[in-house]
Structure formats: C-alpha cells, structure tokens
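Appendix B, example 12.
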Amino acid sequence: MNFIRAIDEFLIYIRIHKNLSPKTVEQYERHLVKFLWYLVPEISEFEWKPVDHELVFLESPEDSVKRSQKNVLKRFFLDKCHLELENVKISDLNEFRLNIAEKWLSVKTANAYMITFRAFLKFCRKSGYESVDPISIDLIKQKDREVTFLDTAEIVRIFNEIDMTTIQWKRDAAIIECIYSTGLRISELTALDKSAINLDTREFSVRGKWSKIRTVYLTDLAVERIHTYLEERKAELGEKDTFNSLFIRHNFDKYNVYSKSVQWDDVIKKPLSDADVRLSRFFITNKIKEYALRANIIKEVSAHTLRHSFATTLLTNGADIRAIQELLWHASITTTQVYTHITNPKLKEIHGKFHR
C-alpha cells in the first residue's frame, strides 16, 4: 500500500466516518506529512507551496480551481513517492521522535505526533494493510498538568478595568462574563449566534467537541451584561444590524456597512457579511490578556483561563465533580479531576483542625 494513499484514505475516514473537526483533521494530516518528509526528504524539495501552503488531501474548498490544483498536487506526490506502508518500521517512528525531540518540542507536542501515528496505524490494521502495530508506540510520561485560574478577587479586578462607556467595552464585559459563567471553550463562544441564546430561560445549547450538543447556563449577571450589550448594539446599528453573531467587531462605519473587495482592476463594494464582523479567537484571547495586564495580574491569562476559573469556582463552592464534568463536557472524569489537585476547600479546614 502506497504510504501517501494510506494517508489519504485515513483522512477521509476520520473526516467522514469519525466526524472529527476540521482542525483535528488538519493536525493529523500535518503530523503525517512531516513524518513522510522525514522518511522521503527529496519530496519536500519540490516547489509546491505556491499551489497551497499545506498538503491538504481532503479539504473541499468552494473554489473549484483550487480543488483542481490540489488534485493535481496529490497525483504529483503519488507519482513521486514510492514508499510502501509495510516498509515503515517502528525504528523509523522512534528515530523521528528523537528528531523532533532534538528540535526542543515539548513532551505534549511529541506525544501528539505519536497519538496521530497510533490512530493512523490502527486504521491501517483495521483496513487490512500490513503496518506497524499501534500498540508498540509508547507515549512519553508527562508531568502533571498545570492549570492557571483566577480567584473571585482577580475576576473582580478585571471587570474594574472595563469602564462600560463604549459599546466595545460593554461587549468585552459580556464576553468575559459569558465565558466565566458558562465554562465555554473559545471556539464555542466565537460560533455563538444571537438566536442561540435565550436570556429569559438563562440557558442555551452549543455544539462542542465531537459535534455533540450540550446545554450551558448563564448567571443573572451574565444575562444582564449580554442584554446591556445587545441593547446598545440595537441602538447603534438599528436595522443595519443584520448580523447573526452574538459578539461582533464595531470598528466599521455604521452608516456604510460595506466592505471593499478588489477583483482584477475594479473595486467592488459589497455588504458586510457575518464572517466580516464575527470576532476571532485570537482577538478575544488578546482582549482578555489586555484586561488582565491592566488589572496587574501576572499570571498567563487567556480565554481558557476563564474556563478553568469557572470550574474551580464551582469546586470551591462545593459542587460535585461529576456535575462539573458534565458542565465542562469532559469525556473522562480524569480530565476534570485535575481541578481537585489545585483547589480543595476542605483540605485547609482539615489541616487546621488536625495539625497542631
């Protein structure tokens, strides 16, 4: 079995049959292609980057020309690579792991590569292709996971840095409170639409990892902040607010909600789309970092820090670990138990009572 063809079949399998997210498929593909380049270095010397920045076999872009280019590229590499899957040995994987370790990649990153190879080889065995046994690939032992979270006082300090005098600040306050009160992942937050949220029942559903739907709940304060932002947005944009996104950027002319796109020699004006104004994960993360710095918080703060803070707040207030697992939508209780290692409201009480 040709190694590239096996990769191609694997990517189709995890995208269609396993329904993994595009980002996960992209990561698996990147790992396998880098391993391929390590095994057949002469392939990486071919000038393919002008066609596409990634050797993406599976993506189906709307642009038919780009799709055609990718198909040509795929056939080109199939013609150039004669590596057979059965000729790849466990020693090749171990040498590749040593190679990436010498590049000072973290243990977590090195293990991510090995997890990709395990999944790929498991698929190959399942398909009846001769390959390395996936069980023979061991992971490197990692240190206990470190979790950064903010306590209640630090959360208050961050909100004190938002003076609520502009619509952007009201939006930022609503974003921070929304994550802190629900434990949303940043990808789930950026995908939120106005129609998805019910401020009356204080709950809404999100499609998270594994394409599964879960219900999350808002606090009274989160409802208040979101309502304040949406009312301000309605007052500012009026009928021009045709955007679905719950949170949008506001650095555009509200009297001229058009974007300019250059097509050949002409400048074409078109209405702003939802994608034009929807906030990115990078924008939101940088905003949260900015407010944390203003509040003189020296921890490494991100949007995910607020998710951790949501979990630790529940735990310190006596919530059951199983309930927290459901609210965070963790597949395994082991993932949730990391919070019991960093905060346990009873330990200090027990220490003070029994240690003299």
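The radius of gyration is 25 Å. Residues 72 and 261 are 29 Å apart (CA to CA).
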